[in-house]
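Course assignment 3, question 2. Fill in each field.
Student: A.L.
Task: Predict the tertiary structure for the chain below.
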Amino acid sequence: MKNAMKNANIVLAGVATLMLMGASAFAQQELTGTITKIDRTRGTIAIQPEQSGTVGSSGGDAAEEFKAQDRGSLDTVHAGDTVTFFITEAGGVKTITKMRKQ
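Answer field:
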């Protein structure tokens, strides 16, 4: 009986951990920003997020680098383009899963 309770607790702890990890890994966020740099060799892209808030607020956010899930999507965009994109994050790596030029 004691062993069964221990196994049940381990299973519940594992399920809770997977639920927490899954929520962050699979949650997609839609963002808009301006491309500042593309590294087609590494499959990465740097995008400065669109400034939110009121006019006259402090300076914009710094550009952030993302991995491209589909490297081919980098062939259709250039530095200076405004894009809407979706990202996922898993293991500390942010990946663009879909990108649309504005």
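Instructor remarks: The first strand starts at residue 29 and ends at 39. The CA atoms of residues 38 and 45 lie 4 Å apart.
Grade: pending
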